[in-house]
Amino acid sequence: MFVPFVVLVAVAVVASLLFAGFNFVKVKKLSAGNAEMQEVAGAIKEGAEAFISHEYKVIAIAAAVVAVVLGVLLDVWSGISFVMGVLMSGLAGFIGMKIATIANVRVSNTARETGKLGSTLKVAFKGGSVMGLCVGGFALLGLLLCYLIFGKGVGLVNVENLVVKPNGFVRLEYIPFTMVISSYALGCSMVALFNRIGGGIYTKAADMGADLVGKAEEHIPEDDARNPATIADNVGDNVGDVAGLGSDLLESYVGSIIAAIVLAAYTYFTSLNSQGALTPALLDRLMLFPMALAGLGILACIIGIAYVLLKKPSEHPHRELNMALWSSAALIVGGGALLSWGFFRDVNLPATLGFKAGFMSPWIGAIIGIVSGILIGLLAEYYTSADYKPTKNLMKVSPEGTALTITKGLALGMRSCFLPVLVLGAAVVGAASVAGIYGVTMAAVGMLSFVAATVSVDTYGPIADNAGGISEMSKLDPEVRKITDKLDSVGNTTAAIGKGFAIGSGALAALSLLISFIHSQVGSDGTGAKVILDMIKPLTIAGAFIGGALPFFFSGLLTDAVAKSAQYMVKEVRRQFREQPGILTGEVRPDYKQCIKISAAGALKEMKFPVLIALAVPLAGGFIFGADFVGGILIGATITAIMLAIFTANAGGAWDNAKKGIEQGALEGIGKGSPAHDAAIVGDTVGDPLKDTVGPSLDILIKIMATVSLIGVSIFGNYNLASLIGL
Questions:
Q1: Under the phi-then-psi rule, with left for phi > 0, alpha for psi from -120 to 50, and beta for the rest, what region is 413?
Q2: From CA 143, how far away is CA 709, in angstroms rounded?
Q3: Helices (H), 580-694
Q4: Among candidates 8, 89, 120, 32, which has minimal Cα distance to 455?
């Protein structure tokens, strides 16, 4: 199995990165428009690159410390693989941000020159595809290198030579490869958390400052060049919605694959000396299958993306983007069946371990994940799109004032939690019924198997949004802005779908890691009958209470961070309008750089503590109270974080699209500058930090905590204060 697997994954990695490079060059060769357009785009590009440079310096320092700690406490290979994860995720985020700042002005210019929606869509999607292909390519490249270097090169994956020591825990020396790849996942998670938190604080502080003063108080258009915060707002789209989103889904992608690999290894140990035990050869296949399916998924996404880019331009952007997603998913469904047949047709997948559908069991688990991911995305669209009843009803209450707009949006977000969680629950039960616990992890892999297409569609959104801003600030023909606004409107919907995918896949990946954590203890005889987590143990219950409160505390920190930065931004915009009246008449140019500095300083200052919480809480809890306490934390945090993430993402998305609906004339006789529009702007402003900072960060929080716990349990499972004092 080794050679075909390496060839499949290697071909997928090379093809995705080459295709990304090709699209990068093609977009860059397009005309960037007139001098004024290039000046505006240059300011956005300069601000984005300055922020990402400062942020990556902070990440580099933190990563160096964590790598040394892993190298000392675990093994040098774990430290090296952690650094690889940081590099892969960092590269994907940087390249995605780079192409977004290049594509935005070219999208605007294509709309100016052609006046055609379809041609403009293709440029925006081509730019977005660079990010999507880099996310899949770099994530899988790192996993392949881990396998080749540490699995086959160093030989850490040779399960036939593993022994279980009397201390009862599967420690580094017993399953070294799983610890190495878990460290790789930790590296990806760390970059994702920094990018999501830092980028989210940056973009929402600027967005709130621009909206509250420019739109609500002075009633100037969105992205008007007279607004001092408008450049910072557009910079934020690139560092938050592009670099942040890409590293977020890359981390979910890697986490789901690694959860399947780790769980396969622990299943091997828990099945020893029992009926239907896994053989080392079968374990090797179960560990490799998720990576092979991911490779197949990238190849399917390349075909789906290429089809949309090569076909005749269409005037229906939503249909075009959906075609890239659904065609990729369909190819994975068909190809996955052949892959599962090739991997498992000549071996026995024991029904006693949950494999009820023979060699097709892993594939069916993945299909359940794909279907559930699509359903969650459609539910996100239903609750946030202005085309459907929930957001339409939200728009209708805006004429009644701000209070009802906020209240209705909160109710919408709360109601929207139930159906996605119902889908997740059904997916867990369904996948487990056909492939056991391993099937649950494969559902997460399946949900993210077309991540390259998902990220491509998601990244298209902020590129189109930036193009609209450049069109407005460059004073292009209003017809140009109409085209970019249509693309941006679709981008809001695709962003909501992307958040649904991220939350759903994050939940399944976190659950998979939690299951791996629970099964990370084996009996001294190797039978694996013993597992962590006694649900009626006081330490577990206490951990669950604390874990349940943690996402709320974390969310409060992020919301407060945005509010602090936005407060400085509002004061600065008001100061400039007050001291330079010529700004509003167009006679004086605003000081854009000062607003960029405020957003950057606030983000860099406020992002450190939330990241520290995610890394430190499971370790501190483990070394003080032990593994049961940490298991309780993970259960409590996972449940509440999923609910909060769905609630914040959907409420914020609905407020945003309700505002845009009013601006586009969805309510007869009510438009921009009306009291209803002002109420909708306030609703959108309240929702901004929820949907773009809090929600996207919560799924990373639970995954990084689960990964840290899985790595740390090999130490604190035996050495903790609670066991020493007899708790």
A1: alpha
A2: 20
A3: 582-585, 592-606, 608-625, 627-663, 675-689
A4: 89
Distance CA(440)–CA(519), nearest Å, equals: 14
Q: Which residues contact 384 (CB under 8 A, 6 or more apart)?
A: 390, 391, 492, 493, 496, 650, 653, 654, 656, 657
Q: Are 131 and 246 in contact (CB under 8 A)?
A: yes
DSSP string for residues in 45-76: HHHHHHHHHHHHHHHHHHHHHHHHHHHHHT-H
Length of the chain, please?
727
Structure tokens that stand for 572 in this block: 């600065």
> Cα(354)–Cα(345) distance, rounded to whole angstroms?
17
CA–CA dist 159, 151 (Å, integer): 10
Q: For residue range 292-330, what is the model confidence (pLDDT) as tens digits?
A: 999 999 999 999 999 888 888 777 777 888 888 888 889
Q: Are 271 and 102 in contact (CB under 8 A)?
A: no
Torsion region of 333: left, alpha or beta (phi above 0 gives left; psi -120 to 50 gives alpha): alpha
- Left, alpha or beta for 431 (phi > 0: left; psi -120 to 50: alpha)? alpha
| CA dihedral angle for residue 471, residue 477, residue 480, residue 486, rounded to 10 degrees | 90
Asked if residue 192 lies in contact with residue 677, where contact means CB atoms within 8 angstroms, the answer is no
Give per-residue pLDDT as tens, 258-297. Answer: 888 877 877 776 666 555 666 777 888 888 899 999 999 9
Q: How far apart are CA 477 and CA 484, in angstroms?
A: 12
Please give the single-letter amino acid code of residue 278.
L
By the 8 A CB rule, do 166 and 60 touch? no
Please choose, from the candidates 85, 256, 253, 75, the residue with its C-alpha nearest in 3D space to the C-alpha of residue 175: 75
Pick from 461, 496, 492: which is nearest to 663 by CA? Answer: 492
* Structure token pair of residue 141: 């490249």
Cα angle 253, 186, 523; round to 5: 100
Please give the structure tokens belonging to residue 381.
């669209």
Residue 162, token pair as written in the block: 């593993």
The answer to whether 146 and 181 have CB atoms below 8 angstroms apart is: yes
Three-state SS for 245?
helix
**Dihedral sign (CA 236, 238, 241, 244):** negative
Nearest to 696 by CA among 257, 303, 197: 197
Secondary structure letter of residue 311 according to DSSP: S
Q: What are phi and psi of 355, to 5 degrees?
A: -80, 90
Give the pLDDT confidence score for residue 583 in this predicted structure.
84
Dist CA 558 CA 101 (whole Å): 26
Could you give the dihedral angle defined by the CA atoms of residues 635, 640, 642 and 646, in that order, rounded to the nearest 10 degrees? 170
Judge contact between 48 and 239, C-beta under 8 A: yes
State how far the Cα of 235 lies from the Cα of 407, in Å rounded to an integer. Answer: 31
**Tokens 């609670």 correspond to what residue?**
722
Q: Which of 275, 504, 548 is nearest to 377 (CA)?
A: 504
For the entire predicted model, the pTM comes to 0.86
* AA letter at 352: T
Closest CA to 174 of 635, 579, 521: 521
pLDDT by residue (tens digit) across 404-453?
999 999 999 999 999 999 999 999 999 989 988 888 889 989 988 888 98
Structural tokens at position 568: 């400085």
Contacts of 655 (CB under 8 A, 6+ apart): 394, 405, 409, 680, 683, 684, 686, 687
Amino acid symbol at 217: E
Q: What is the identity of the amino acid at 162?
A: L
Gyration radius of the chain over CA positions: 25
Q: Which ranges constitute the DSSP H helices of 147-221? A: 176-209
